[in-house]
Amino acid sequence: MPSTTIHFIRHGKVENPDHLLYERLPGFHLSDLGRRMAEATADYAAADPQLSDVVAVYSSPLDRTRETAGIILDALNKVRAERGEEPLELQTDSRIIEAGNEFRGKRIGYGEGALWRNGNWRLVRNLWKPSWGESYQHIAARVGDFAQEKVREYAGKQIIAVSHESPIWSYRHLLETGHPEHNMFLRHTALASVTSITYDSETGKMLSISYADPAKDVR
Fold first, then answer.
1. What residue ranges define each of the domains in the chain, with the CATH number in brackets?
2. Rounded to whole angstroms, how far apart are CA atoms 45 and 54?
3. TM spans, by residue (predicted)?
């Protein structure tokens, strides 16, 4: 049975001294720690027989994911050069972008512009169904659309998709439980982690899911 694997990788830690909910806002880049996290995952990918054999690298269009993907791509292209293979180029896809959120630009905690001021807390009615932004159903559906398209396009091969916590976990939760709704505080998607989903290349059915956290000890 031919299979296709998509390795969903979360971006590294972001430089955010004002503790803002940055969502899809521009100008939020990897911190020094975030770059080290991405480098740890890049080293992990380059050393892994499966990950080092990917044929495409995708990213959400946001700065932090593109920077993470770029670091990983550099490591993979060094391996490809040693094999005499052509380098891969980064491709972006808006279907794996961060979830839309009505709280973008708000501060986490206290002070002017804090999340809980001006009645914003009233939007948080149900952690399993985010009334404050894009629904988990919509998030999982767009990631699933991306995945099924790539399973057909890269049948029998492997690719990387650098995305964000909510899209990765909402989609994984849908595949594992049949519904994308979940408690955001119970996600298992660490920064720079790798969630590998393998599909039947012919039917698109999920065969297995594995998880790795190469950057867990990075400080």
1. 3-212 (3.40.50.1240)
2. 9
3. none
